[in-house]
Request: fold
Amino acid sequence: MNTTTLMDDRLAAKPSRGMSARQLPVVDMQPFFYGDEAARQQVADAIAQASRVYGFFYLTNHGIPQEVAAAGFDAARRFFDLPLEQRMACRSTQARQNRGYQPMFDTASAGKEPDIKESFDMGFPLPADDEDLRAGLPFHSTNQWPEHLPGFRAQVEALYFAKLACGHQVLRAMALALGVDANFFVARCAKPTTNMRLVHYPPQVVDPAQGIGARAHADKGVITLLLNDENGGLHVLSEDDEWIDAPPRPDAIIVNVGDLLTRWTNGRFRSAMHRVINTGGHRRYSIPQFHHPAYRTLVDPGQLPDGGPAKFEPVVAGEYVAQGFQRDRKSWAT
Reply:
């Protein structure tokens, strides 16, 4: 049984062969919101099929207002236009946290070129007297906000909660497809460690050997909801080791499966490797939201029916994700 991160084995696999002509599937969420039981089941089954084969899919009619998403990108552009010293002033004041500013080149694994990106993270708001915050538990901290950007916090928080609501609906559909109560996953997100990230990728050289925006990786959490600007560059690795281009669609967000969900579903849902190469000559912005359950949630494939013999041992969600951060972030290694 596997107790390590899933990415360890995938990084040791044979190199990818090149670009594929395939396209990611598209799922329309509207019947899940407004349809009858049969329509909801059809959407759930489509999400499950996409999660099994690709681990990624486009989601249309997702319920995130276009103006809220646009305001999020406006906030990102304004933040990364700030002088470096003002961005650095937004770094987390606590160790082992994923909030505030992450400077360029912080994401790097041993022996690998660092990612060419910088980011700003926010997480589920916690009161100052929260016991886990006071204890310094990973991912439990106060959000850091810039002092010189009027309206920034309101823009970012509005998008965070719109995406959180959308993510809960996707998780309900996944639970329905897996034959459990619709709130199986959502009920374990009462105090989530879900974080949303504003990411800036500067233009880069064409040669990936000199570093890319985001090296090949798999997300660590349950699901990720991703908004991209008009610049492409996201590639998803197929089961037969070819890269599938995932260009932005103005009518859709991208949803992908994370490692925790692969473990929870005993491998039925696929956490796919993906990368970002920003060779278009323009600054690129994206806004992923990484959905995580409460820190102490037990992720056990035996909790879901019809999964077959367990391929993964149970893990504590927050501990598993924190191990990945410690491996991949320079700021977490000290």
About this structure: The chain is about 30% helix and 20% strand. Residues 152-177 form the longest helix (26 residues). The radius of gyration is 19 Å. Residues 138 and 322 are 7 Å apart (CA to CA).
